[in-house]
Amino acid sequence: MGILDSPSHSAGVGLNALNAAPTTSLNQLVPSHLQSFTLEKLLARILTLFEEYYQRFLESGFSGHFEDMYYRHWLHRYGWHQFTSRECPPNVC
């Protein structure tokens, strides 16, 4: 799934929802007493959450709720990072 917000900015993510190999799928993490999900339900949930977050972002920007959520879930939160430029280095982009 990807998001394109302008001709020069995009974001993407991949999820292993159903395939047992070579990595663990999301369905493998569902407890055995619960029903596994379908791709349609997973996509519907992702898109409704995205719509809700996007609307909230448009109303308040990246502050308060979003900033707190970002730092709470950021994978590199225990590392120190310094950003000195808004330009993307050639070896990263």
Outline of the structure:
This protein is α+β, with helices and mostly antiparallel strands. It is 33% helix and 10% strand. The model has no long low-confidence stretch (mean pLDDT 77).
Task: Describe what you observe in this structure.
This protein is of the alpha+beta class and about 90 residues long. About 35% of the residues lie in helices and about 10% in strands. It has a two-stranded antiparallel ribbon. It is extended. The relative contact order is 0.07.
Key attributes of the depicted protein:
single chain; 93 residues; two-stranded antiparallel ribbon; 2 helices
Which strand-content bin applies to the residues?
Answer: 5-15%
Largest sheet: 2 strands, antiparallel
**Strand adjacency order, main sheet:** 1-2
Overall structural class, as computed from helix and strand content, comes to alpha+beta
Number of distinct helices: 2
Q: What gross morphology would you assign? A: extended
The overall strand count is: 2
Calculate Rg over CA atoms.
Answer: 17 Å
SSE blueprint and pairings:
Elements: E1 2-6, E2 9-12, H1 39-60, H2 65-73
